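Journal club prep, shared notes

We agreed each person brings one worked example of a sequence with its structure written out as tokens. Mine is Ubiquitin carboxyl-terminal hydrolase. I'm keeping it raw so we can talk through how to read the token line rather than staring at a rendered picture. Sequence first:
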Amino acid sequence: MQRRGALFGMPGGSGSRKMAAGDIGELLVPHMPTIRVPRSGDRVYKNECAFSYDSPKVRGASGGALPKRRNSKIFLDLDTDDDLNSDDYEYEDEAKLVIFPDHYEIALPNIEELPALVTIACDAVLSSKSPYRKQDPDTWENELPVSKYANNLTQLDNGVRIPPSGWKCARCDLRENLWLNLTDGSVLCGKWFFDSSGGNGHALEHYRDTGYPLAVKLGTITPDGADVYSFQEEEAVLDPHLAKHLAHFGIDMLHMHGTENGLQDNDIKPRVSEWEVIQETGTKLKPMYGPGYTGLKNLGNSCYLSSVMQAIFSIPEFQRAYVGNLPRIFDYSPLDPTQDFNTQMTKLGHGLLSGQYSKPPVKSELIEQVMKEELKPQQNGISPRMFKAFVSKSHPEFSSNRQQDAQEFFLHLVNLVERNRIGSENPSDVFRFLVEERIQCCQTRKVRYTERVDYLMQLPVAMEAATNKDELIAYELTRREAESNRRPLPELVRAKIPFSACLQAFSEPENVDDFWSSALQAKSAGVKTSRFASFPEYLVVQIKKFTFGLDWVPKKFDVSIDMPDLLDINHLRARGLQPGEEELPDISPPIVIPDDSKDRLMTQLIDPSDIDESSVMQLAEMGFPLEACRKAVYFTGNMGAEVAFNWIVVHMEEPDFAEPLTMPGYGGAASAGASVFGATGLDNQPPEETVAIITSMGFHRNQAIQALRATNSNLERALDWIFSHPEFEEDSDFVIEMENNANANIVSEAKPEGPRVKDGSGSKWVIYNDHKVCASERPPKDLGYMYFYRRIPS
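Then the structure, token by token:
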């Protein structure tokens, strides 16, 4: 087998033939300014083509086969992932300089005929180490550098102790994407994403204020390590003394290290048992080949990525957006296509859907296997190394190459799709829906309705609703007796949870911690319920199987949930403000300002004409509306851009956020003081007669109020607003089912490797076990972690 690779591509000539020495120099002269020698630190991709998964092992493909494109430079594989030195192969190792698009070939080395610069560049490419070598599983942990701050990290003796749960950001109320600063024990939120998920960047702000460099993400701490980020070094790092640094704050991460992976011997059997069920161990499975049946090689702890991407590219909107636009995306890809999200998504989608990399063995291969007495399916799949390297770069979690969560990666991917949308097309909109949150003050009984965007439905596991409680109690007693007597453990009994109980737990009211009642102007008890204000085309359901015990060890609910093929959630439709309900006043909580500044503000009356315009312009340069910036500076008493920015973060979702500054009743110190601390004193309830006019046209009352608030009660503009925001309209009945024909359902666990199960054409379930793709005989639908449901048109 011949292994070939192209180093540079340049236009010229016709046909694939060798050229005379004079012609070579003539063709290279116009392109000499564009050729440069790779420097230290440059990415030289020698293990994977930037546009395809072709390799010497792909039947009918040469090392340099590429989809047609206009760009003259290419980045191509000169090494292989597979062992071509085995007894199965005889090959010649040959390198050529190829002039594209017409495949002129120049054998290397060729010192006599090539200019010195080209020769040096070719030698540098051939001798460069692959950027993937450090990602091999055997050297995985060496991928991240050791932080230069780890050995001499200062930790304050301030008595801070971190509980195993119930964390929230010290500067806001966020309870996810939280980071523990390893110097002072502050718990703060990470950066925010386009959909308002993630955080408000308070961990980074804290570093800028204090210079404390290292933080660990809460929720990732296991006996094997955790995700550590260095703000000073601006990358994910390793902390060799992490156990010591965490113990300083009362977190013991190493108490389970007495046995492999921190698991007690008696914990191993239940996990293996479930894994055997998911992989359909002991069942002879029939391999599947062709378009849509291409597996993804496991790169080491990459199961979460494979699971999500197999599901994503089973959805028609993603197929059309990327694979359907392949010629245009490839033609207009940048000079370095390895760093272009749309190019890499298209490449991966084509690899999974084309069938080019999922072909059944030919007769000669089957005969060879019989002769070797090793007849077994040979499914190679494709290796998404370039894709993984790109989507995980600069991400503290996914760049760590440890076990990750499929749900977190799904949201990360949605974020990337949104940021790199192709024109106006955004395929991730198929997952987007609006959630109506109703918060009620328990003391005054008044309510507030708000809406937010979400992309998945998280269902709690209702363990108390298990239908086999007697069996579970008997099993637990038997297990403990076997442990104490050192006998073999009994066969696992898994809790059986009705799906209806999980759905009921989702819809139950939940307590709101630190609820601030605008009716009382003080903290009070509050409860929150969530409903669907709109429904997506594809509903992603996550079963919240993971939690933390009091010992800080992640625990997984080993349960069986009877997931339905058809899911009716009409009863979770949002209803809006109901007759007899009274809304909470539209007043925001006070901004926390240092006492000395607060005293100054309470005694100093700020005239609107005295607004600090320099602070206004600083905020406006960040992209905020000018009028909103003026209000922020005014209501924070000219305290500066930073304090005003905090006001903007609190108020930016309000309908009148960008409206001009108005102060009815201005002229008293008391009203000014109230305004400074968040009580605007403005009644934003639109006139009832205007609401009645809009509702008489057939629109819903809640929709009319929302439109009028967004347009300062201007009737004409409110009607335009309604027609430009169709997502606020009432949806038709929403019934969704597990996809039967579009490969839309997937089962995934946050484990280092293992199968995904999804359905195939003709209502057949297919199991995707890394690179192996087979027809499923016993699909374990009850053991899933994420499920994709397709909406049924009404």
